[in-house]
Amino acid sequence: MYRPTTKNEWWVCGVLLTQAIMTIALEVQVTRLFLKYIFVEWQSWVTPTIIQVPVSYLIPINLAILIFAGVYMLVLALDAIHAKNNILLFAICISNACSFAYAIMQYHLMETTTIRLYESRFGYPTLVDTTRKLWPSIQPAEIVVCIIAGLGTLVVVPCVYFLHREYSWAIYKSVNGSRKTRMRYLFYEIFLVLIKVNFYFLIGFIVQYNLIYVHFRGIEYTLTMCLIPASLICMLLGIYFVQHERTWGVVVIIACYLGVIAYLITRVIILFENSTVGKDMMLLFAFVSLMLTAATVVCAIVCITNFDRGFKMINRSKNGSGRSSSYLQPNSLPLSHPDSRPPSRLTLD
Asked: What Gene Ontology cellular component terms go with this record (predicted)?
């Protein structure tokens, strides 16, 4: 794994790491003095018969998705810094803001679900421990999770802005100032961002749909679970084929993602025709994944048309010539040319 070197890189990774650790700690840990766990509190409050209703998986799944988001964004930040991918850095900012919104949604979902379970128990008499209420115990931790996600977003945005200024110059030098080359390379970077971000939303939908709606019914449950490793393999192969300009491989990946689009459309239709717990959250993930998958297919097609036009040389120039050379300031002059004028600074993204 790549290790940050500059101050701005350390700020971005440090903020995301802190946010991930504190989110995990608080999602797992809760009050009275933050000495217990949200998940442990939930498990101690419900009874074994809770598995009779899909809502039993709703809270653990939402906790896991938020934790996964924090860890995944940290991994993407390290990847973006290693590849000097400005588009991915901006996507991380947007994703972090979405995590903040998701944390707020989780707060309301947790409140309504626990109160409904306590009051009506969905018609089952022994789903939870009716001698105590869960929500007052976990409410403080849920509030802190929202605050951490919001503060993390506020701090990451300016750090990413300063990194963008550094990386734009490095990328501009790599494409030798060519506008056409910059646009081709921009589509390549957008493809990498889309395929990586889409993986999170696709997995989030698959897990929610399979555990809440399918709920262990027949062979559909097993087949849907197989989509998780298949999605990971498809993402990794897609990145490899595009980076190494393998046209036939990218065509196969495009076919796979067209299948994903068809799958998501059918699932959305099914969810619209049925009423189930957590339907709104599943539809949100499905629609976002559907849009990202369609955009990924378009960018993959554009990348194929741009193969054999210098992507490999740009990547080697951008990453293989030493990081210190990538951060030359625009007014820095080579020692061998003391009379040359400073080049104008342009940005790629």
From this structure: Golgi apparatus
Q: Establish whether the linkage from the previous residue to 32 is cis, with ω within 30° of 0.
A: yes
Largest CA distance in the chain: 85
pLDDT in tens, 92-125: 888 888 888 888 887 887 788 777 777 776 666 6
Model confidence pLDDT, tens digit, residues 48-89: 667 666 676 777 787 788 778 878 887 888 887 777 777 888
| Dihedral over Cα of 125, 126, 128, 131: its sign | positive
Residue with token string 């022994």: 126
How far is residue 248's CA from residue 244's CA, in Å, rounded to a whole number?
11
Query: In whole angstroms, what is the distance from residue 149 CA to residue 151 CA?
Result: 6
Q: pTM for the whole thing?
A: 0.73
Contact between residue 45 and residue 134 where contact means Cβ atoms under 8 Å apart: yes
pLDDT above 90 for 168: no
> In angstroms, what CA-CA distances link 265 with 222, 260, 261, 294?
20, 9, 6, 12
- Cβ partners under 8 Å of residue 118, min gap 6: 128, 130, 133, 134, 135
Burial status of residue 289 (CB atoms within 10 A of its CB: 0-12, 13-18, 19 or more): buried
Give residue for tokens 């390549």: 188
| Residue owning tokens 């300031």 | 329
The answer to whether the beta carbons of residues 224 and 210 sit under 8 Å apart is yes
Q: Which residue has tokens 């995301």?
A: 16
Residue 284 one-letter amino acid: L
Nearest Cα neighbor of 46 from 128, 133, 134, 122 is 128
Q: Can you tell me the distance from the alpha carbon of 88 to that of 292, in angstroms, rounded to the nearest whole number?
A: 14
Residue 250 has pLDDT above 80, yes or no: yes
